[in-house]
Task: structure prediction
Amino acid sequence: MDTAQLHAGVHLENISKSFGPEGARTLVLDKLSLSIKMGEFVSVIGPSGCGKSTLLKAVAGLLPIDGGTVMIDGMTVEAATKQKKIGLVPQSPALLPWRTVLDNVRLPMRVNPKANANRNLRDPQEVLESFGLGAALDKYPGQLSGGMQQRVAIARAFVFDPSVLLMDEPFSALDELTRDAQRMGLLDFWQSNRKAVMFVTHSVPEAIMLSDRIVVMGAHPGHFAEIINVPLPRPRTTELYATDEFRDLEGHVRETLREVMGHKSA
Result:
């Protein structure tokens, strides 16, 4: 088996990250190791300041790490970025206001066109339609609701068919009803287009509904306190929220978070 097959998806080994001036640096990530297989959805949850977004940025190659290894499909982050193997969805949609929805989603196809050779690019209009945005193709971001803008950002990440999708609390700015609709839309699309996903969230129900595994992080420094399997059947629907299995998992995750924060239940 070659390296690419062995490490398809995301592979982190003992990665560390510190911030601050020399001699007074603060350790933010402490020797984290994790593998996310192709077709696996993994959420990262934890208290504010535990390093969730720092971890995601390190995996995306946006932050240099102090030590350890990050591999995407058996290659370095730099090589994976050049080959457009990483799709990133930030907290803010980061859409260009002077471009239409369709032009915003087409943009990744026009950046580093050499990387598009010999790969199956998705038709931007088809992807947008699959996200329920067929009527918004010629609109500008300012004409869309926050939920629709975030759907455009997710569609943009899918259009060049990356191997790995990194999502940093993409629904955090939305109200709960809109957020639930968006997460179910993402789930439907992902279930038919399986990627290796690392998804940062503060929402326990969201993490359970979307994920195969949930990584609970603790802080000072950032570490993996527990990795919780989510054995709920797929495909998933909103009926799962009312099941005993869902509630039991929610209780487990919340108890782990309380322990991480130093608030153990009686």
Remarks:
- The domain at 96-163+179-194 is CATH 3.40.50.300 (Rossmann fold).
- The mean pLDDT is 88.
- Strands lie at 10-19, 26-36, 41-45, 67-72, 75-76, 86-89, 164-168, 196-200, 213-218, 223-229.
